[in-house]
């Protein structure tokens, strides 16, 4: 794998960037930008979108709704750093970093693997729309 995969990295990165552009277009077309915060692509060239993480206030109900419709999502950082066990000795408590705490409750990673097809992305966004409008 380590001998073969490097030949395809740039192609995979380009595909992920394209998927990010497609998600942004779809979320915009479906009128969801007031309910969902999209990731910032920066200059569009340096970000490879290893993860495509949105922010949505009602993340957990949305995640459950997507799971029932066979859309895999991930929550990579369910707890902010200052509340993790390894930082307990620093003495931080709930409320010390409210934005970090809010982000930990709102972030949700959507599928963005290189082989993702546009129809699959359309399904993801339409399903999110259906959940948020219900």
Gyration radius, rounded: 17 Å
Q: Count the DSSP helices.
A: 4
The succession of helices and strands, N to C, reads: HEHHEH
Name the shape in a single word: globular
The biggest sheet amounts to: 2 strands, antiparallel
How far the N terminus sits from the C terminus, by CA atoms, comes to 44 Å
β-strand percent reads 5-15%
User: Strands of the largest sheet, in order across it?
Assistant: 1-2
What class, by secondary structure content? mainly alpha
Helix content: 40-55%
Uncertain stretches: none
What's the β-strand tally? 2
Mean pLDDT rating? 94
Written description of the protein model:
With 134 residues, the chain is mainly alpha-helical. The chain is 42% helix and 6% strand. The protein is built from four helices and two strands, in the order αβααβα. The protein has a two-stranded antiparallel ribbon. The longest helix is centred in the first third of the chain and has 21 residues. The radius of gyration is 17 Å and the shape is globular. The mean pLDDT is 94.
Keyword list:
single chain; 134 residues; mainly alpha; two-stranded antiparallel ribbon; 4 helices; 2 strands
State the gist of this model.
Helix content is 42%, strand content 6%.
Give the helix/strand layout:
Layout: H1 9-29, E1 52-55, H2 59-68, H3 98-106, E2 107-110, H4 118-133
Antiparallel strand pairs: 1-2
Helix pairs in contact: 1-4
